[in-house]
Design a protein that fits this description.
Blueprint: H1 2-8, H2 10-18, H3 28-40, H4 50-53, H5 59-63, H6 74-87, H7 89-103, E1 110-120, E2 147-156, E3 161-169, H8 174-188, E4 194-197, H9 204-209, E5 214-218, H10 224-230, E6 237-238, E7 244-251, E8 258-265, H11 266-295, H12 302-315, E9 319-331, E10 346-357, H13 359-368, E11 371-376, H14 386-394, H15 397-406, H16 421-455
Parallel strand pairs: 1-4, 4-5
Antiparallel strand pairs: 1-2, 2-3, 5-11, 6-7, 7-8, 8-11, 9-10
Helix pairs in contact: 2-3, 3-6, 3-16, 6-16, 7-16, 11-13
Length: about 450
């Protein structure tokens, strides 16, 4: 790992950009290199016991002549995080990622964009102007009770090399940021390949703004045309990819000519059908419970009881009331069986009914199980076939794997202990650099194995 950091030139890039004070025993670049080795060491408390990590290790061989573990203290680490932040996190990462991409001759035909959240403990004051806001937002960690910050990441090439990193506030809206990031990325890298992202990218404003870029994304089913398409009973063709069938159509949503791919995943369909069965039963039980509550209510007239039953039936999900009857109930002033000539003191009405599933709605739900829609403005099927579109979207998992790497329980994100939003943002960039070096190491191993195979 230390050799790869040197081969990419991370230390030299940082020292050149941030400068070096001759009074410093350890340069900023070397401190960052030490952070990377610490983070990639997968110990239980990265950075928290920063100096101790290097005790017993060949520190001089890893970091440079004359460097001792005691030089790597918390104060120096904090100052370096401040310096890195001041230099511009995204700009620094971009320069380093460009060097890595050139070094390993990374293909730049597709760019995959995604975001994730990192939760933190404790309280954080309101953000300064231009600084990320550690605040509440949609939590990918399923911890809405904790504040968080976000990371946006673009990866390219077969090795999913991260090339663009941006730290963002915890309440970032992906829908409003993703299109802008792709536009910025295409200019910084002079990129004219395919931009791939999840459904957050697909909106009328975004696909209009991305004129001039080639994109592939998922279509949210909140769009009426998409919801109609997944519910259609159509014959799907073999995609050429095991477990997937598809059907291609055209669309001009938001005035942009594009191709839509209705795709059905066999594995996902099985999972969705199991979940649907559970949801149907849950809705049936809820409907029955509400019916029982309705049946216990006494109404003053038949009209009120009938209206209440009709209202409840309309509110039910995938179910309705059938065999509805309004039963008259007489009340007398004395308990027991009334005499034949007894006059009731009041009369009320109660509802009786049966909960019945609506077959047509359940059939529609079963049809859409395992289905999703991809869209692309690449009209030429020779340039991007339906099967290629599916493969590229499945490759989106590369960014997700990167986020899983960053969220490993032994990595930084397990306990972000810094209190300054600036230092937290800088730490996020260090985390992304760890991912870059880790992926580069895998690519390096693949190259070595390939060379060995050729020689053999």
């Amino acid at each position: 790992m230390a050799g790869l950091v040197d081969e990419i030139g991370i230390v030299d890039i940082l020292n050149k950009r941030l400068g070096r004070d001759p009074r410093e025993k350890v340069s900023t670049g070397v401190i960052v290199k030490a952070m990377l080795l610490n983070g990639l060491g997968f110990v239980s408390a990265p950075l928290y016991l920063f100096g101790q990590f290097f005790k017993g290790k060949a520190t001089e061989q890893l970091l440079g002549e004359g460097i001792e573990p005691e030089h790597l203290n918390d104060d120096r680490l904090g100052n370096v995080l401040d310096e890195v932040y001041a230099a511009g996190l995204s700009e620094l990462f971009l320069e380093i990622s460009l060097a890595a991409a050139d070094k390993f001759e990374v293909k730049r035909e597709t760019a995959h964009l995604d975001s994730t959240s990192f939760h933190v403990d404790g309280d954080y004051a309101s953000a300064e102007p231009g600084v990320i806001d550690i605040t509440y937002g949609y939590s990918r960690d399923h911890r809405p009770d904790l504040k968080q910050f976000m990371m946006n990441l673009i990866c390219v090439g077969d090795g999913d090399i991260p090339v663009l990193m941006e730290m963002a506030s915890g309440n970032q809206s992906d829908k409003t940021r993703f299109a802008q990031l792709f536009q910025e990325f295409s200019k910084q890298w002079t990129f004219d390949g395919l931009c791939v992202a999840d459904g957050a990218l697909y909106s009328a404003d975004n696909i209009t703004a991305m004129t001039g870029l080639k994109w592939l994304t998922r279509v949210p089913l909140s769009i009426s045309a998409a919801a109609t398409l997944v519910d259609e009973v159509v014959e799907l063709a073999d995609s050429g990819i095991k477990g997937y069938t598809l059907k291609e159509s055209t669309s001009e949503y938001a005035g942009v000519k594009q191709r839509w791919f209705l795709i059905e995943s066999e594995q996902r369909r099985k999972s969705d059908l199991k979940q649907l069965t559970k949801r149907i039963e849950r809705h049936r039980q809820q409907s029955q419970q509400k019916l029982n509550q309705l049946c216990a209510i006494e109404f003053a007239c038949i009209a009120d009881a009938t209206a209440a039953a009709a209202k409840l039936s309309q509110q039910m999900t995938w179910h309705q009331l059938t065999e509805i009857e309004i039963v008259e109930k007489k009340h007398y002033d004395k308990p027991g069986k009334p005499k034949p000539d007894a006059i009731p003191v009041r009369i009320c009405f109660r509802v009786t009914a049966t909960v019945l599933a609506i077959d047509s709605e359940l059939t529609a739900q079963r049809i859409r199980c395992g289905r999703f829609i991809l869209a692309s403005n690449v009209i030429d099927s020779v340039v991007l076939s339906a099967a290629d579109a599916l493969r590229e979207y499945k490759a989106q998992q590369g960014v997700e794997r990167g986020f899983r790497f960053l969220k490993d329980p032994l990595f930084f994100s397990s306990s972000v202990f810094l209190k300054s939003p600036k230092r937290i943002a800088a730490l996020g960039m260090i985390m992304a650099l760890c991912l870059l070096v880790g992926v580069a190491e895998l690519m390096y191993d693949m190259v070595i194995e390939s060379e060995i195979d050729e020689k053999q």
